[in-house]
């Protein structure tokens, strides 16, 4: 018989940046910006409270992405609670390519498991990660949100999702430049062609492999390794200011990319150069100096 814990449970989940240039739909990095979610089982009903990013846009009922993800996990665990109080404190910008939806999904499934007495014995991490990836539809943000750090993820044909963590040199940090207006992931994906030239695919594969090595301990190769051939230029019509910033930074030797589906721009740096890099933030945008988050989702 599934039983629930007394009192509230809290989970925090990091922002994430997918692709990192050439690693389209396969590479993701967790960053030191976190959404905080709290839930408590009630005798009946549903209460949803949201503050911070997206608070005036997201639904406050069972269609809320955290609630939907929690229900999916409760069904896997064997029982939904009679009622639920959910509080979300959102720091991750919505619609900016920093993994806000993946944070909601990962937060929801981890929160649901934590609310079930002995939940970790009923559903292990691998199963919970695969559930989160299925809800999202792709694992490149979900994997680092769940595991932390730098993760190589994908889906083998005919099988389920996989995620493999890879090391990140402790010198590597980031600055993210967040524009004032969002771009829907569906719009950004809709601009991609059905096929790309073989030469572009081969070049992109080489840069992706180099990026794994550069992040692991050879950051001097990050500029070369972050060159993309598969998606960024195709998406330029949806985010011309973002690609103009990427072009300007790269022209000065900065390893800059579009974060996920955009329109945020991520640039790799170290602690000594982060301040000067953040000063290049365009007017009306917001710059954040973020380190690599190595913990992933945490529950308390």
Question: Would you mind describing this structure in some detail?
Answer:
- With 300 residues, the chain is of the alpha+beta class.
- It folds into two domains: 9-167, Ribosomal Protein S5, domain 2 (2-Layer Sandwich); 173-290, GHMP kinase, C-terminal domain (Alpha-Beta Plaits), CATH 3.30.70.890.
- The protein contains ten helices and eleven strands.
- The protein has helices at 65-77, 100-115, 119-122, 125-136, 142-147, 185-190, 198-217, 222-225, 240-251, 274-278; strands at residues 9-19, 23-42, 45-52, 83-90, 150-155, 161-166, 173-178, 256-258, 265-269, 286-290, 298-299.
- Strands 1, 2, 3, 4, 5, 6 and 11 form a seven-stranded mixed sheet that branches.
- A hairpin with a 5-residue loop joins strand 5 and strand 6.
- The mean pLDDT is 96.
